[in-house]
Design a protein that fits this description.
about 210 residues; mainly beta; 1 helix; 9 strands; about 5% helix; Sarcoglycan; disulfide bond; Beta-sarcoglycan; cytoskeleton; transmembrane helix
């Protein structure tokens, strides 16, 4: 505090200061330049609420707390989040969704469900996943299931370079017609006094049958 007591801005100085603040922040009756506030009514319960709209092309934020639990993108536009580690956390039950090093992980979650407006599509407590008949092809590196079955009177086609089927209590295949083919072979040679040639499947290592190279 100055020796002569507190200092006050004159009315004209205060007005100039306020104008500069408004100009720098880009303030309008709806908010700031890249930050706007809107009121909306919930169609389900009729309650009015306020939501914040970010209109900048890129935003650098450290933490977002949404009391409603919703963070939405603009209609018709992609909602992209970049970060070395992205964490979505529910403060009520401490459940978290973590994106890190190319993987996604759920923590402190008892149930995971995917659903549309009519009914659940997948539930972790009842893991029955039905493929819609409009989906004709699925690409994946690994499938863990107790059964793979094609629709009635339709073929099940598996196209893969290296197929491994493992069952903890056995593997059973049942079909009216079963066709399996290996399209490539590898030629190998035994390094011995009398070298011998042999072939293996193209996706298998050169391992000769027992006592073949002796």
């Amino acid at each position: 505090m100055p020796a002569g007591g507190p200092a006050y801005l004159r009315a004209d100085d205060q007005e100039n200061f306020d104008c500069k603040v408004i100009r720098v922040l880009g303030l309008t009756p709806h908010g700031m330049k890249h930050l706007r506030f809107h009121s909306s009514r919930n169609a389900k319960n009729g309650e009015e609420g306020t939501f914040v709209e970010f209109v900048a092309e890129n935003l650098h934020l450290g933490r977002i707390i949404a009391k409603t639990g919703y963070v939405n993108g603009s209609p018709g536009k992609d909602f992209t989040i970049h970060g070395s580690r992205v964490i979505t956390e529910n403060l009520n039950n401490k459940s978290r969704f973590v994106l890190h090093d190319g993987t996604c992980r759920f923590e402190n979650v008892e149930q995971f469900m995917i659903k549309n407006q009519q009914h659940p599509i997948f539930s972790a407590k009842h893991p029955v996943f039905r493929v819609d008949r409009r989906i004709k092809k699925i690409s994946t590196t690994q499938i863990i299931t107790n059964k793979i079955r094609s629709p009635i009177n339709e073929n099940l086609h598996v196209d893969i370079e290296n197929l491994s089927i493992r069952g903890n209590e056995g593997v059973r295949m049942e079909a009216k017609a079963l066709t399996a083919s290996v399209d490539a072979f590898r030629i190998c040679i035994c390094i011995a006094a009398r070298p011998k040639l042999f072939v293996v499947a193209g996706n298998k290592p050169c391992v000769a049958p027992q006592n073949f190279c002796t």
